[in-house]
Amino acid sequence: MTAQKIIIDTDPGVDDAMAIFYAFLQPDLEVVGLTTIFGNVSVDIATRNALVLAELANRDVPVARGAEKPLLMAPKPHSSHVHGTEGFGNMPPRTPKGQAVDETAAEFIVRQINENPGEITLCPIGPLTNIALALELDPSIAGKTKSVVLMGGGLELGNVTEFAEANIWNDPHAADRVFAADWDVVMVGLDVTQQITCGAPEFDRAARGAPVLGGFLSEATEFYLEFYESVLGEPVCRLHDPSATVAITRPDLFTIENHALEVIVDGTRIGQTVRSSSQGRRPVRVCMGVDAAMVKELFLSTMESGF
C-alpha cells in the first residue's frame, strides 16, 4: 500500500514533537513537509524546532516558515508555561544544521497540493492561520486536498477558556474559514484528546525502546508533566497532537459525528467551535469518541520502533 502523503502544520511544542515523531516512524505515512506557525512558541522558534526534530529523526524534509500572527486579531501570549520558553520544556535550544525553504508555509502548501492533486492530507496541529492563508492564495486547493485532519476545537469543552481550545482560540477567524471551505475536514478535538493520557513511566518505556527519539520525548515531557500535575493533580499529560496523526492512520479508533461547524470570533465565547445552522457549510467529521487505550498503545509501540 502506498503511504499517505501528509504535511504537518506545527508549532513545536512538546506534543507536536510526539506527533511528528509518530508520523516519521509510521510506514503508512510520508511526511512531505513541515510548515510552522506561532502558538506554543513564536514562529521563529517553531521553525527552528521543526528543523531540529526532522534532523533528530534523520529525515530530509523541507520546513517552510509560516505566519507570525493571526489573520485579524492581536496575537495571544505564547504557551511558555506549558511547553517552556524554547518549546521543549527545560531543554536548552538546539541549533539545526539546515534552514527553512524560501517559500512561505502557504506557498509551500499550495504548491504541494497542486503538484499532488488528491494525494495530500493536511495535518494542522497548531493555529489554522497558514491553512486559511493557503486557501486565500489558491481557493482551488479545497477541491484538490485529500483531507484536513486537524487537532483543535471541541464541542463539549475548552482548555484555555471555559469555551475555547488553544489552537482555535489563537486564530478563530482562520479556523472559521477552514471549517467554511468545501473540503473534507476531520476535527480531532478535546472531546477525545482529553481522554488519552500518558505519564513518566510510558515515556520511560519509549526511551528504553528508542533512546534517541524516545529519550528526547522523555526529557522534554518532564516540564510538561509538571504543568499538567499543577492543573490535573496528577503527573500525566494529554496526547493532543499525536491523536491527530493517529487518526490519519487508524480512523477506526475514533467514533465520528458529522456536524457543520463555525467558530465564534468575538465576545466572551471567542474561539468556541459550535454546530452551525448555515446551510452552505459542508459537515465536518467530528471525533466524539475514542479507544483511548489503543491510541496510547499505538503511539507508544510506534515510538519504540524508532531509534
| Helical percentage | 25-40%
If strands are numbered along the chain, what order do they take across the biggest sheet?
3-2-1-4-5-6-12-9
SS-derived structural category? alpha/beta
Can you tell me the overall shape? globular
Supply Rg. 17 Å
Summarize the helix and strand pattern as letters. EHEHEHHEHEHHEHEHHEHEEEEH
- Please state the second-level CATH architecture: Alpha-Beta Complex
Structure description:
It is built from twelve helices and twelve strands. It has a single domain, classed as Alpha-Beta Complex (Inosine-uridine Nucleoside N-ribohydrolase, Chain A). Helix content is 39%, strand content 18%. β4, α5 and β5 form a beta-alpha-beta unit. The mean pLDDT is 97. The chain is globular, with a radius of gyration of 17 Å. By secondary structure, it is an alpha/beta fold. The strands form three sheets. It has an eight-stranded mixed β-sheet, sandwiched between helices. The chain has a two-stranded antiparallel sheet with strand order 7-8.
Secondary structure blueprint with pairings:
Elements lengths: L3 E7 L3 H12 L3 E8 L6 H14 L6 E2 L15 H4 L21 H11 L4 E5 L4 H9 L9 E5 L14 H5 L1 H9 L4 E4 L1 H4 L3 E3 H10 L3 H20 L3 E3 L1 H10 L4 E6 L1 E3 L9 E3 L8 E7 L1 H13 L3
Parallel strand pairs: 1-2, 1-4, 2-3, 4-5, 5-6, 6-12
Antiparallel strand pairs: 7-8, 9-12, 10-11
